[in-house]
UniProtKB/TrEMBL annotation:
Domain (HTH merR-type) ranges: 1-70
Presence of keyword Cell membrane: no
Annotated keywords: DNA-binding
Signal peptide range in chain numbering: none
Species the sequence originates in: Neptunomonas marina
Descriptive protein name: MerR family transcriptional regulator
GO terms of molecular function: DNA binding; DNA-binding transcription factor activity
Top-level taxon of origin: Bacteria
Pfam families to which the protein is assigned, alphabetical: MerR_1
Length: 168
């Protein structure tokens, strides 16, 4: 039998993660003593390994819980997640295509006169939805906040609107 700390070390997760999984009901200790110690056996180790595998596929805990408790739903839930990932990949590819289009247009790279309106037209033509553009700005802001600021200024956007965009 393993304590929370030993289970965490053996499986390469944090103690907090194990406690969170317990709180969510996906990983319960085999035994809980009167003094509050949690003990985990081989079955719990195996279950934690399954949870880790499913998490590596990007599955949320709610879906993992369903997978572990209703094996008959296994294929259906995995297919649903597969198609969700496929949609996300499609959106990301459209974003890549938009960036490639920008990189291939010499008037846009370091050029003058690209306005917010023109930028939105380019992104829309590349297949970006409003949601995609919002995510793009959020990612840009997270990774390169100073460059994002410079970019927004280069589009001729006013300070008030820039503040709103950066706060998305």
């Amino acid at each position: 039998m393993l304590t929370v700390a030993k289970l965490a070390k053996r499986c390469g997760v944090s103690r907090t993660t194990i406690l969170h999984y317990e709180k969510e009901g996906v990983l319960l200790p085999a035994l809980r003593t009167s003094n509050g110690y949690r003990w985990y056996g081989d079955r719990e180790v195996e279950r934690l390994q399954q949870i880790k595998a499913y998490r590596s596929y990007g599955l949320p805990l709610r879906t993992i819980s369903s997978l572990l408790s209703h094996s008959e739903l296994h294929a259906e839930l995995l297919k649903r997640h597969f198609y969700e990932l496929e949609g996300e990949i499609t959106r990301l590819r459209r974003q890549q295509e938009g960036i490639v289009a920008l990189l291939n247009d010499p008037n846009l790279i370091g050029g003058k006169g690209v306005t917010k309106k023109r930028w939105v037209e380019i992104m829309t033509a590349a297949g970006f939805s409003e949601e995609d553009m919002t995510k793009w700005h959020q990612t840009f802001e997270t990774l390169e906040p100073e460059e994002h600021q410079k970019f927004l200024v280069s589009l001729g956007i006013g300070a008030e609107e820039i503040a709103k965009i950066r706060a998305l």
